[in-house]
Amino acid sequence: DVVMTQTPVSMSVSLGGQVSISCRSSQSLVHNNGNTYLSWYIQKPSQSPQLLIYKVSNRFSGISDRFSGSGSGTDFTLKISRVEPDDLGVYYCGQGTQYPLTFGSGTKLEIK
Amino acid sequence: VQLVESGGGLVQPGKSLKLSCSASGFTFSSYGMHWIRQAPGKGLDWVAYISSSSGTVYADAVKGRFTISRDNAKNTLYLQLNSLKSEDTAIYYCAKTGHTYPDYWGQGVMVTVSS
Q1: Phi and psi dihedrals of A106, rounded to 5?
Q2: Which of A46, B77, B89, B101 has its CA 20 to 30 A from that of A33?
Q3: Would you call B108 an interface residue with chain A, using a CB distance cutoff of 8 Å?
């Protein structure tokens, strides 16, 4: 199984600031078809997860351009700029390149 | 897109439960669907996938005990949970697949396995 390792476990940021979350996979996430199925999700308090980014760097429908994804192979990053109060929650990376699908253990974002 | 799970509850170890996920807002029959669970205070744990043509894949932890199925006429996804264990206690989410990754998620349904 592909192991997804996220860092940091938690972080605190001031409103208007910028954060970066790292996600590393134990194997390359490049699919046989050439796509890289790395996604980012946010789970706000008491809510279900919501898709933010898919295929490394594509923002999902309705997602602000304050969220950006980058990376390749086994190393990926989610950046959040101009942090707003609604950004608090737990962020997960996930891979869809091979079954079983696996997720990182999450990064909890708190607002200072 | 709207996904609404139902059928959760408290069940004894070794017993069975069937979850449903009612889908609307998209052409259900054209998309694969996932079940993903989250134990209390824990992270996300993928459970099973069913393709638009009803091919299935399972996590090792549930293989042989859980069965994913779909009824395209009813726009409904199912998860039959048999031989339940305490470690199956979790919120169970159904999710539509974007390509291979889950995109839209339901609100989840709680399953508690306890005597």
Answers
A1: 100, 150
A2: B77
A3: yes
- What is the rounded CA–CA span in Å between residue A31 and residue A28? 8
Question: For the segment A54-67, what is each residue's pLDDT rounded down to a tens digit?
Answer: 999 999 999 999 99
A94·B45 Cβ contact <8 A: no
Taking CA B33 as the corner, what is the angle to CA B15 and CA B68, rounded to the nearest 5 degrees? Answer: 25
Using an 8 Å Cβ cutoff, are A39 and A109 in contact? no
Give residue A112's pLDDT: 86
Calculate ∠ Cα B26-A80-A106, nearest 5°.
Answer: 75
The pLDDT > 90 percentage for chain A reads 98
Contact check, Cβ <8 Å, A54/B57: no
How far apart (Å, rounded) are the C-alpha atoms in residues A29 and A37? Answer: 6
Give the chain A residue nearest B59 (alpha carbons).
Answer: A100
Candidates B4, B9, B34, B46; CA nearest to B21 is B4
Contact: A48, B57; criterion CB under 8 Å: no
- Closest approach of chain A CAs to the CA of B71, in angstroms? 23
CB contact (8 A) between residue A103 and residue B44:
yes
